[in-house]
Amino acid sequence: MSGSDVQRTAPETAALAGRSFSAGRALRHAAKVLPEHARAHNRSLVLQTLFHQGAMSRADLSRETGLTRVTISDLVAELIDDGYVAERGLREVTGPGKPAILVDLDREGHRIVGLDLSGTDRFLGAVLTLDGEIVARLDVDVPADPADILAVVIDLARRLVADAHAPVLGIGVGSPGIVDDRGVVLTAPNLGWHDVDLEGVLRAELGLPVLVANDANAAVLAEYTFGGAADDVLLVRVGRGVGSGLLAGGQPMRGSRFAAGEIGHVTVGTDGGPRCVCGKIGCLESWLSVPALEARLAEPDADRDAVLRDAGARLGIALAPIVGVLDLSEIVLSGIPELLDGPLATATVETLRTRTLAEFHDGVQVRMTAQGEDIVLRGAAVMVLSGQLGVS
Question: Which residues face 171 on adjacent strands?
Fold first, then answer.
C-alpha cells in the first residue's frame, strides 16, 4: 500500500474511532488517517462505496476511492474471502475490449438483528439485510413486571438470531432512556432500568457483536442512511415519552453526559400546564407524548385540531432555540402520523418561524418520516453496519 493511498483518502471510519458514526455522506473529519490505520480505513472506504453506489468494477472502485488499482485488487480479494463482497459477473459491453468483472457488497451474505424497546406495549424485533430491508419480524408484549424485562429481551434476540438463516453481522438495539457509549442504559424509567449493561449482557448471552443506543439516536441514523435526511437534522420521536436524535455535519451529538436530545423535560408551559411524570409543571412531554395527547383528546368536548395545534406550538417553543443555535435545516417527526402530521406539524412550523431569524430559518423543513414504526429497527441496522463495516 503506497503512502499516496493514505494521503488521498480523507474520512476516518468507525474502525478507527471505536463506536463513533462511520464515514457516510460528506462526513467531516479534522485529522488525516494515520499510516497504521490506513488498511482498516481503506477497507471501510471500499465497502462504503459499494454500499451506496452498487456493483462496479475494480477500476471503477479505484477511480471513486482514489486508491491505486493494486490496493483495490488486494482489498477486494480480502473482502471476498471474508464474505462481505462478491463478484457479480461481467459488465455488458457493446464495443471492443475485455468486459470488466463487477463486484458488489454481498448484501445477502449476512444478516443483522435489530431490536426496538421503545414501544408502550410491545418490543419489536427484526432480521434485516445489509440494505436495511426487513426479512423476518417478531414482537413480544412488554412484561408488566420490570424484573422480567431483561429476560424477555434476551429471549427475543435469541429467537431472531435463530431465524436469521445467514451469519449474523451483529445485533443493534434501540432503547429508551439515557445510554452511554458502552451500551449501558444509565436510566430508563419506563423500563425500570438503572445502570443496566444491556450491551454486555446480550453479548455474553449470544456471543455476537452488540451495539446499544437510545432509540431516537438510532432512528436519526436510519433517517440519514435510508431516509435521505440532510447532514444537519433533528429527529423528534414521540411515543410514551418524547426524545430526539441529532446529527450535525453528519455526525451524531450525544453530549458529555449522553443526554443530548432529551427535550421531553424542557419546560414549555411557562403559563402553567399539566404536571409531568418527572414532577415538574409544563414539560414538553406532558403536552406532546402519546398518552398525554390521547388523554386530552378524550376529554368531553375536546377540539381535536386545537389540542394538536397547542401541542405543536409547544414543540416549536422547545425547538426554536435548538434551530437558532445549530442552524438546522430539517426537523423530522417520528410517531403516530394521525397525531403528528397535519395541525400539529403546521403549528410547529408556524411557531418556529415566529421565534427564529426569518432571513435564515424560514426554510426549515418539518416533515414526517416515511419509515413508520420500522425506523428504530433500521437505525439499529445502521449501528451494526457502522460499527462492524464502517458503512453508514
Answer: 113, 210
Superfamily of domain 111-220+375-389: ATPase, nucleotide binding domain (3.30.420.40)
CATH 1.10.10.10 fits 36-105, yes or no: yes
CA–CA separation, 279 vs 281, rounded Å?
7
Tell me how far apart the alpha carbons of residues 255 and 387 are, in angstroms, rounded to a whole number.
19
**Topology (CATH) of 227-370:** Nucleotidyltransferase; domain 5 (3.30.420)
Report the pLDDT value the prediction gives residue 301, as an integer from 0 to 100: 94
Length of the chain as a residue count: 392
Location of each CATH 3.30.420.40 domain in the chain = 111-220+375-389, 227-370
Least trusted range by pLDDT, from 78-82, 93-97, 179-183, 282-286: 93-97
* Closest to 29 in 3D by CA, of 46, 41, 9, 12: 12
Contact 302, 295 (CB under 8 A): no
3-state secondary structure of 350: helix
Q: How far apart are CA 45 and CA 52, in angstroms?
A: 11
Residue 347: predicted pLDDT: 96
Residue environment code for 29-56, b if the CB has 16+ CB neighbours within 10 A, otherwise e = eeeebeeebbbbbbbbbbbbbbbeeebb
Please give the grid coordinates belonging to residue 57.
468494477
